[in-house]
Fold:
Amino acid sequence: MDLDAEVAAILRKHAAEARVSEGEILDGAVRAYDLRALLSRLQAQSDLDDDQAIALAREELKAARMARRAAG
Structure:
């Protein structure tokens, strides 16, 4: 993946500050973006308001994390 030099510098800085790999920072960013996309899809396909959509997304995220922990 090619990153703009400024974005790459920001990535390196955040990774160093958090003492994690750059890949972990990217993974978190993609997951956050995907969560926002999920919220948008939920809202488009239902009559949920913002608070209800966020609550549903949190429930699903919690369930996914629990399933991942149980498998690992």
Observations:
- DSSP finds three helices and no strands in the chain.
- The chain has one domain: 5-71.
